[in-house]
Amino acid sequence: MDELLAEFISETQETMEALAGEIVAWEADPMDRERLDAIFRFFHTVKGSCGFLNLPRFERLSHAAEDVLSDIRAGKRDPDAATVSAVLAIMDRIGELAQAVLSGASVPSESDELLIEALLNGDAGGEPGTEKAASAAIAPANVESKRAAGGMRSIRLPLSLIDQLMNGVSDMVLARNELSRKLRERFSDPELESAFERLSSCVADMRDSISKTRMQRIDRLFVAIPRMVRDLGRDLGKKIALTIEGGDVEMDREMVEMVVDPLTHIVRNAIDHGIESPADRLKAGKSETGHLRVAAHQSGNQIVIEIADDGRGIDTGKLVAKAVAADIISQDKAATLSEAAKLDLIFAAGLSTASAVTAVSGRGVGMDVVRSNVEKIGGIIAVDNQPGKGLRITLRVPLTLTIIPGLIIRAGGQHFAVPRAAVVEILHDNNETLSISSVGGARVATIRNVRHAMIDLEDLLCLERAQEAGKRTIIVIRSTSGVPFALGVQAVDNHEELVIRPASPLVMASGLYAGMTLPDNGQPMLLLDASGLASAAMLPMIDGEAEAKEHRGPVEDNSADELVSALMFTERSGEERLLKLSLVERVEDIAISHFAQSAGRWFVRIDGKLLPVVHGLTDAPEGIVTALRLSEGDRELCYPVAHIMDIVQMPVIPDVACRSGIVGGITVIEGRQYEVIDPFQLFASMPEEAVKVRPVRCLLADRDDPWMQEILAPLIRQAGYEAVMGGDVKPEEADIVLCLAQSPAVKSIVDRPVVKLRNAQRPQGPDDDSIYRYDRDALIAAIELAKRERAA
Amino acid sequence: MSQLYLFARIGGTDVAIPTGEIEAVVKLTEISPVPRVPAHVAGLSALRSRVLTIIDTAALVWGRPATAGPGSFAIITDIAGHSYGMTVDSVSDIASVPAGELPLCGQLDPAWMPFAHKVVENEHGPHLLISLTSFVEQAQPLAA
Hints:
The complex is a heterodimer.
Chain A: H1 2-28, H2 33-53, H3 56-73, H4 81-103, H5 110-121, H6 143-149, H7 159-185, H8 190-213, E1 215-217, H9 219-222, H10 224-236, E2 240-245, E3 250-252, H11 253-274, H12 278-283, E4 290-299, E5 302-309, H13 316-325, H14 331-336, H15 339-344, H16 367-376, E6 380-386, E7 390-398, E8 403-411, E9 414-419, E10 423-428, E11 434-439, E12 442-447, E13 450-456, H17 457-460, E14 473-478, E15 484-489, E16 491-501, H18 505-508, E17 513-517, E18 525-528, H19 530-537, H20 544-560, E19 563-570, E20 576-580, E21 584-591, E22 595-598, E23 601-606, E24 609-612, E25 624-631, E26 636-641, E27 643-651, E28 656-660, E29 663-669, E30 672-677, H21 679-684, E31 697-700, H22 706-718, E32 722-725, E33 736-740, E34 754-758, E35 771-772, H23 776-791
Parallel strand pairs in A: 2-4, 9-18, 13-15, 20-30, 31-32, 31-33, 33-34, 34-35
Antiparallel strand pairs in A: 1-3, 4-5, 5-7, 6-7, 8-9, 8-16, 10-14, 11-12, 12-13, 14-15, 16-17, 17-18, 19-20, 19-27, 21-25, 22-23, 23-24, 25-26, 28-29, 29-30
Helix pairs in contact in A: 1-2, 1-4, 1-10, 2-3, 3-4, 3-5, 4-5, 7-8, 10-11, 11-16
Chain B: E1 4-10, E2 13-18, E3 24-27, E4 41-47, E5 50-55, H1 57-62, E6 73-79, E7 82-88, E8 90-96, E9 102-103, E10 116-122, E11 125-130, H2 132-143
Parallel strand pairs in B: 2-11, 5-7
Antiparallel strand pairs in B: 1-2, 1-8, 3-6, 4-5, 6-7, 9-10, 10-11
């Protein structure tokens, strides 16, 4: 019996969740019979099951609701706002009861009668002010798609089973990796290898589909919104049109749980603080109804959720005033803040933009909590404010909690992973823009005039430093607290997608780790927690970046419009040169084997395409070449360099213009002169990419002739011409027609060169202008002639 | 009594562990150390696709730094959703004990106090009855 009860409860809760959106949509359009039916069915089912399970309260409530709905269905009663509210109230009560049954708590039963009475009398006694509140118009765009999805068959599975499956597949992947290592060590047997390949791809497919089982449509996140918007809109007397998009985007079910709260909060804020009352909206020249749009889409391995309203936006002036009043920032500091920095204050703890704290939002839990919740799951929150016009908040969260891109670093002979999202910059310690100084034990890394607190990972983790001569690497890490610091490590080894799993409490208690991962080599690795590291190091939380900006502020602004960022690098031949940074797509290390010379020019094979290379690599040793990938939009170039030195600010116009080859002039930076590359010359010096010329189209008139199909057509294609069979295109669209000497087709063609092919080796007479069909040279010559004629 | 016990030795002391808590006993291969955690945590080790937190039980009991390395025996157990490997010197037997669990007589070494409250006896003499969960629970306050 218990099992039946549990099933009934979970089924009821699930249906209610799905119905929340429907009922609001039904209110907007009471004539919608389909939705009415769906709601009626719900109550009917509940009534039926609880009679069987002996749950009298459920039965009474659902019975009352069913009666009213059936009256509405029969047209005896109008589904006015009060009735809908009463039906909703009954639904809520059933939800409460279900929750209570689940947790063993009790809900006072007297109020059941009140609810039922309200329903039967058509008077929403429990909700004063319902009458005067304007009804919220709701237009959920996802309702249609939801209906369509209803037909899919599904079953219920315990989450633990899925986790078990997931682990099983991970085991399988590890076993496969081991097997592949062993296979490589032994002998090579192509048959065995191909069987192994097949197994291997099956395993990979399976891993993919198993990880999909963890995915859930974001719909679940959105179902509660229409109801919330309706209720809030009525409470506050605002008219709101809601649009929901992208409910079919899928994300990890755990992630869905994590996003519910921040999303709810943002939507509440938008309705409470963002969208104005109808009167205010009219005054501001807007339509009476406010628009709220919630949309989700997938972008790479992130889910982007946008919440946009057309309300009043954020008044940054007011925000700053509040922040000053709340002692969050000082008066004179506030005056120097940029617009973006002001906006950032909404994330400061203890700030709310509403002038009055309302019951809806602004209960002390503010955007600071939202941001920290979003960042906790590796997400980013961005605010796009248009004062008076609206506010758009964008949440970017990873697709799954469990897979994150990470850098693998080495320190003290051990490997650790760092979430890539936390890494701002990676530098070698011999980089000229970096200077490390220490005073009284405190170490400061100054990178391009920005001071960062610095700590070595080995010291932090009490590890022995590897006695390995050579350069160390400095990683600038920005933790969620927002203050970047420099972390010295032995080396950054790799960049990988890591499957993160929670570490045991014993390990987590240290506060330094965010989880652990098992890479393919089977050696467990710990994921470092950026903010944990910062607090363990007890670094002073001073934002060197902001500080530096304050110091330089106005001076830099004056000159900023004449300077552009430039990449400073050393050529393979030794010269130090500058190149406008915006041209550089990325810097890549490319194996020398990917470079090849052809027709006097160098080309490199990257990402499946050939790019022209600026300089040849005549003196290239074996190994890896550092190369810049430049792009001007359509064309890409590869520019091999010896090494990258820095990113500097250079004047747009070189100090001395002196053209020679790709060099456009000379610029002095910090007392040294550098050649500046002229991008125009650079791209101009590159070979024109093969212009797509339409190949000569040869029409093979006799389409049924096997010789034409099997011998002639391949020959023509091989020679670089296009071969089409007669009938596929009209003769007028071809450049030349080839046909058999005896073919009847030839007579119908007039204005195209025709080549007749004969079977005999010798001409059949003095007037015979046909070509022997195996005379390749004559054939090609004839086509070439046609090509020239076309060009003429 | 149908209760089965695993008889093992931790830091020279004979112990018995109810088999219900035990998933397997394995010989550890590689252990990746974890910096800045309580000294008795020997590190992490992979068992197929699972990652075990290895606890050097002898080190925990006597308050020494962990010495467990590759080749140590470890009892695999799941506690609160996490997998642990608890090192033991050796394992001798799995058997039921006719006399069942007996109260502890005599002065127990204070080091063992948090972990053992009863004994079970087999033909080789008394064994401290310990619960693997206590190894993790005891470890928490130290870690904080």
